[in-house]
Amino acid sequence: ESGSGAVVCWGYNALGSTVPPASVNGTSGTGAAIEVGLNYSCAVQSGTGAVVCWGSNTYGRATPPASVNGTSGSASAIAAGWRHACAIQSGSGAVVCWGDDALGQATPPASVDGSSGSASAIATGIEHSCAIQSGTGAVVCWGSDSDGEATPPASVDGSSGSATAIAAGGSHSCAIQSGTGAVVCWGADGYGQSTPPSSVNGASGTATAIAAGTSHSCAIQSGGAAAVVCWGSDGSEQSTPPSSVDGSSGGAAAISTGAVDSCAIQIGSLSVVCWGGTYFGQSTPPDPVNGVSGN
């Protein structure tokens, strides 16, 4: 919530995943960053930088290690996947992951785990993870590669280009290429989720922010309008942003995507606007953040 920094959640409340603890809900502490995975959520606590998670703890996904939970270290960034989570450790820049590691998704390579390199950005998908290597800007991915989601193309892997932003979806990944601002995606493309439109792929436009859901992707288009552009699966209209953020009557300052829903923070009002599936209320942000009584 703007001003207070309190973490506010809504939607499906399996195992307490939408009930943030006092340490970040404004009672005894607040949050500086927030991420949502499958039936669990995580936040970086304001001030301390400690990673705090709640909800389902199967595979230990809601139990961040001491190196980032404030015991012996903290975090500067956080990402929550299906059953695993990752963070960038403050100071060292090392990527630290925990939770399900059946496909190696929670075992970052030496190039970003602090052994021979660190990271400036992190993203997690269902069973894969990606990071942007500090210094080089190269995208590095690990974990499941069944659809090529963990094999970034040369245009962003450091061979012929690098990235400034990264996102990981169900079985696909996207990045914003350094210099050009073009959105580049790879991996599963059954719904067109890895085929960004010309308005953001560099042909007729570029992007400043990127997000990847299970089978859809969204970006904020560069330029004054800051329009939200989405592509891929649209069965629940998760790829059809409303006029309040699609550039018609407003734009967005930030974007996020879920399984069948998407949300953005509207420029100016800072109100949270969501669209797509709403059967659990996930696309109906409450008054404290939807602009009615707060943002």
List keywords for this structure.
295 residues; mainly beta; three-stranded antiparallel beta sheet
Describe the fold and architecture.
The protein is mostly beta strands. The protein has no helices and 18 strands. The strands form six sheets. A three-stranded antiparallel sheet has the order 1-2-3, with no helix packed on it. A three-stranded antiparallel sheet has the order 4-5-6, with no helix packed on it. A three-stranded antiparallel sheet has the order 7-8-9, with no helix packed on it. β1 and β2 (40-45) form a beta hairpin. The chain is globular and about 50 Å long. It starts with 30 loop residues before the first strand and ends in a 19-residue tail after the last strand. The model has no long low-confidence stretch (mean pLDDT 97).
Explain briefly what this protein structure is.
This protein is 0% helix and 35% strand.
Number of strands: 18
Approximate strand percentage = 25-35%
**Spans of at least 5 consecutive residues with low confidence:** none
Cα radius of gyration in angstroms: 18 Å
Derived from helix and strand composition plus strand pairing, the structural class reads: mainly beta
Tell me the distance between the termini. 6 Å
SS summary, helix count: 0
Q: For the largest beta sheet, what order do the strands appear in spatially? A: 1-2-3
Proportion in helices: under 10%
Question: What's the rounded overall pLDDT mean?
Answer: 97
Q: Can you lay out the helices and strands and say which pair or pack?
A:
Blueprint: E1 31-36, E2 40-45, E3 51-55, E4 75-80, E5 84-89, E6 95-99, E7 119-124, E8 128-133, E9 139-143, E10 163-168, E11 172-177, E12 183-187, E13 207-212, E14 216-221, E15 228-232, E16 252-257, E17 261-266, E18 272-276
Antiparallel strand pairs: 1-2, 2-3, 4-5, 5-6, 7-8, 8-9, 10-11, 11-12, 13-14, 14-15, 16-17, 17-18
